[in-house]
Design goal:
4 helices, mainly alpha, Outer envelope membrane protein 7, OEP7-like, single chain, 91 residues
């Protein structure tokens, strides 16, 4: 059978890796195509998390203004004790 050289072993390993990569690409082709299309459409300069946090903070501020500020009964409680006191039947 002959000696197995390092070059033959490297070729076999490289071939196995290439075959595995192609098998994964073909098995997950629809999912990978959707992910790649979404990445192509995305804007790398825009971070949606920053925008969502900013919008939520401005919504809370506008809710306080519309509902009457600090004296409003609809205002969110600031602590757990306030929430319990507000929701207790004795209050």
């Amino acid at each position: 059978m002959g000696k197995s050289t390092a070059m033959k072993q490297a070729a076999v390993v490289f071939g196995a890796l290439a075959f595995g990569w192609l098998a994964i690409e073909m098995a997950f082709k629809p999912i990978l195509d959707k992910a790649r299309a979404a990445m192509d459409k995305s804007d790398p300069d825009r971070d949606p998390d920053d925008i969502a946090v900013r919008n939520n903070a401005s919504d809370r501020e506008s809710d306080d203004v519309v509902k009457g500020g600090d004296e409003s009964p609809c205002r969110r409680p600031t602590s757990y004790a306030d929430a319990v006191a507000k929701n207790s039947p004795l209050a």
